[in-house]
Structure formats: C-alpha cells, structure tokens
Amino acid sequence: MASVADGFGDYGRNGSLAPSQRAARAVDHVIAWVIAVVLLLMAALAGYALWDANQVLKGTDYSQYEPGLGFADLRKLNPDVVAWITVDNTGIDHPVVQGEDNFEYLDKDAKGNDGASGSILLDSECDPDFEETYEVLYGHHMQAGKMFGDLDKFLDEGFFNANQRAILYLPSETLSLQVCAVIKADAYDGVLFSTPADSTRVPQVIQKLEAEATYLREGSLVGSDRLIALSTCSSEGTNERTVVICKVTGRQQADNA
C-alpha cells in the first residue's frame, strides 16, 4: 500500500519543496545565469568585431585626398607617397607609398599611422618615378573590396572582358593603363615578383602569361611594353596571389606639374 508521504511527490509534508528538488532548481538557476552571461559576452564580442571591421574600412578611405591638390597635400604629409592608383569599376582608388622595405607599410596607412589595412605599396626595389619596364604594386586583400580586394573581380571572365582601364597619377604626370591579364601565382614566383627587373623581364612575363594566365587579352602585349603588376593575397592559400598585369598606354603631364 502506498504511504501518505507518496502523495506529496516533490513536496514535503508542509507543502515546501523537498531538499533534492530545491537543489535541482538551484542548479537550473545557475545554468541559466551562465548561459545568459555567455550570450551577453558573445553579443559584446560580435559588436566589437563589427566596430573593429568598420574602423579598418574607415582606415582605407582617402576621399579627402583625391588626385590633384589633395594628392599633393597627402604627399606633403608623407613624402613616401609616390603615386595614386584608380581602376575603373572597382573600389581601387588609393594612394601608393614606397617604404625602405616591403614591410614598413604592411600595417601603416598612407598618412604613416598604424592601420590594419596597411597601404598600397610600390616594391621597395622599384623606381618611384615608374621609369622601369616592370614594376610591382602590393595591397592587402580586404573585405568589401577595399585596398586590392577588388582585383578578384578580374577573375570573372565577363568583368575582365568589360573592364580594362586604370590610371596611375604621379607628381608630375599621369599614366594611362590597360588591364591586359590576370593570373594566379605563387608569392615566390621569380618572374612576377623579383625586383628590380632587367630588360629581359617583360618577355619573360608575357611568356608566363601566355602559358598560365587565367585571362589574357590576345595580342595586347609585346616585349617592348612597360608593365605594372598589381598583386594581392588569395584565399586559396598562404602563398597564393592574384596578380593583374597592366601596361602603360600613355603618359600626360600633370596639370600642376
């Protein structure tokens, strides 16, 4: 026969919770509190990540220093600024710096301030007047197409075919550029990345492009061309790079030269 006590279930004879049930509820409260704290911390971290990403993207905005007078002002602020590059229908519209080595501006902006987005930089072994036959620009691959992130657009055949104009502004002249090829390459590729380049480099680059380029405008390159390579990191591997090859198609004296 069931005892009278069985009828109380989880409650004692005075109607209060049994000790085991009180302990269980206390554990439940602690678990709920821990979960709430964890969720709050996750929300706070997510908020910080969004803020940090926004600050990084803000660091890539040079809209107050457009080519021309603003470009000159930026050069006065930092004499390491040697040029300004724009590429049609991309977010690439940035000053170009040249440091004492290729590491100086990896985490500094064109004003010389610390910044995770770094700068677009001319290889330290290249000519800042862009008089050499082959020169290389590097830029981080940032989200939202910032810095050189939009070079990936040229890996799309339709975009590559429809877009080929870029401009490089120098202190005393403006270079018109044509996007001629895009290639995926290793960061230690001697043909594309060793500097300074000698007179044999452009034919070597053309030969490599003809064999390995993702896209190449047929007949657009000859050995006497002067080339500028734009390079950025790739998500496909630590040493993988996306490289867009441009040739100089015209030079015009700057208005303020």
Automatic annotation (TrEMBL):
InterPro entries: Sortase, Sortase_dom-sf, SrtB. The keyword Calcium does not apply. The active site is at H140, C233. Pfam families: Sortase. The chain crosses the membrane at residues 30-51. Keywords: Hydrolase, Membrane, Transmembrane, Transmembrane helix. Gene3D superfamilies: Sortase. Its EC number is 3.4.22.71. The keyword Endoplasmic reticulum does not apply. One of its GO terms (molecular function) is hydrolase activity. This is Class B sortase. It comes from Olsenella porci.
